[in-house]
Amino acid sequence: MQRELWASVSEGQRRAVLINAFLGALLGSMNVSSVVIALPAILRGIGLSINSSIGFMIMSWIMFAYPLVMAITVALIGRLSDMYGRGRVFTIGDIVFTLSSLLLGLTPGYGTIAGIQMVAYRFIQGLGGAMMFGNSAALITDVYPPERRGVAQGIVGISFSAGSVFGLVVGGLLATINWRWVFLFNAPIGIISIIWAYRSVYRLPAGFTKAKIDWIGASLLTISLVLLLMGLMLSMMPYGGSSLGWGNPMVWVLLGVGGVLFASLFIIEARITEPMLRVKLFRIKQFTYGVVSSLFLFLAQGANVFVLSLLLQAIYLPLHGIPYADTPLWAGIYLIPSSIANAIFAPVGGKLLNKFGARVVSTIGAVLLGISFELLTLLPITNFSYVWFAVILFIMGIGSGLFQSPNLVSILSAVPPTERSAASGLRSAMQNIGLLMSFAIFLTLILAGASTTLTQSIYNALISAGVQPSYAAKLTSIPPVYALFAAFLGYDPIETMITQAGISLPPSVFSNIDKLTFFPSAIAQAMSVGFYYAYHTAAVLAIVAAVFSYLRGREVFHHQAVETVHAKTRGEVKITEQANASDPIRSNGFSSNNNDIKADPILRKTYAAYLLMNTELGETVLSNITDRELVYAIAVTSGLPNWFINFVNSINDCQFNSLTIESLVKYVSIPDWLNEVVNNWLKVKLTNNGK
Predict the structure, then answer these.
(1) Cβ contacts of residue 627 below 8 Å, gap of 6+?
(2) Cys bridge to 342: 33, 120, 327, 397, which one at CB 3.0-4.6 A?
(3) What is the pLDDT of residue 594?
(4) pLDDT in tens, 244-285
(5) Major facilitator superfamily (MFS) profile domain spans which residues (predicted)?
(6) At which of 273, 292, 315 does a domain end?
């Protein structure tokens, strides 16, 4: 009989798992923040121009490929991890991630060819990341007892925050030397992580089950997300005389088909015997509200580092005299307060979890994030005080730190141990979907806001610089998406258009346009509208996350009877006291009788057996359930008529046997928790009869 893994591992093994999860989170967070901050240097280094559709698409896929693959594969990998072992899959993912980082750093070629190769390597890197990050939280939950999980997850949260800090600074610094080192820097840490993982995590017990791979679910998820992402990308491209592409029929076809396929995914997964996405877990209220809350929070903050980096590198820093070559480093330094606060408050959130519960701590964290986003809208994007900017970022980091660890522990503790990788994978999939959609939503809002005044802003700037009105009119046809990313990448598209159009300007006028500050100041007013749209929306999404976090109610930790195990209390009274909770899978509970677990001593005893099933008391408690008590529980929970329940109460135990119970459960519908009890009770009886 499978016991909780944490009950049998040593303290040394726990430390080894924690170190691996720490290194994995460090690698992953460094990879995200360093690539975002160094993206201008990377694209300049491979000579990729975004003044064309293919250039813009390649740049978008370099950003989106990693989280897209994470979103597509992490749930499937969670299922594979349940089958073959979380430690093994984690270690293989470590290897894949490190090798792909080397490939990215050594990418040959130039221009479009190099860009396409980098997109392919980012897909591979996303696969490795999914194999690591889809298991790290589940491994922590496996090897640490419930009362220590919050702190352990908080330590991993420190790693994630530290990685964000290092990624911002190291990525910005390395970008000023050579963009290749942004990826090659991962290799030494990756090699250390691989060696450590193989010596410790890889040797943890293998999976709980053997199952089939859900290729239908994987295909639907892949196709739907790719279509949705492509539709959102096309919406940012100019079409038919419009600065944005919402008039393009293909945009609506892609979004419509992608949306229908994504919705159908959950319907189909609910009917598949062994699904990739364990939709039945959404019957658990605590799990559902935690995952939905996490989804909305990632929608709110997933693209935050990128958007703030865009604001700093495209507008604020050049306007304050920072050369484009140095903007990645300074942008990284400017964004440090958020990561520091996150690193400080992630373990604090874990400790507060034990005292107040995830409902309180995570909700406060989400509210603080919403407040910080709204405060950002009060800052003028061209000339704000860094002190106030740093304070807002610090509040943002506090909110993120308080939310993540308690919410994660609440989600994973709500499900059985055999479902933790699947639950972790489902949570990670929803988070990565939120991350992808966050990028698309924020960029769309920024560009939509900018498009209303961009042409007039550039025209006014050109006239102020001394350009003739007829020439200025020719030079104001720049689509918002090109204008924004041109400034982000550190060049002035107006100069390119002047050359291409063969326009000759007096030296004094051209010198006005050739200044570092000209183009950022020309687009700043228009872009400020878009940034305000984006952060008002982010604030609303964060508050929605807070609402869902609060609605999860009081947490019920799966296998709450651990305190009884620790105390070595084997009395039935103590055991049944741990079962005074309703069926966690609420929609699969009782069908017609109004009995509940608290009111019925036999149901309470049976549910206690379910809670204790994977502990050292499990077999003892199951053995103490009589034939009649089990049949009674089946009858009550399946909604059989009262005359049958009265009949069960009036006869002797010996008139029921295992064959009778097996036959009965084939023809009635009982809750999942009771089905587990029945199956394990039959195994115990078979074992005892064979002795």
Answers:
(1) 653, 654, 656, 657, 660, 661
(2) 397
(3) 39
(4) 777 889 989 999 999 899 889 888 888 877 777 777 788 888
(5) 17-557
(6) 273
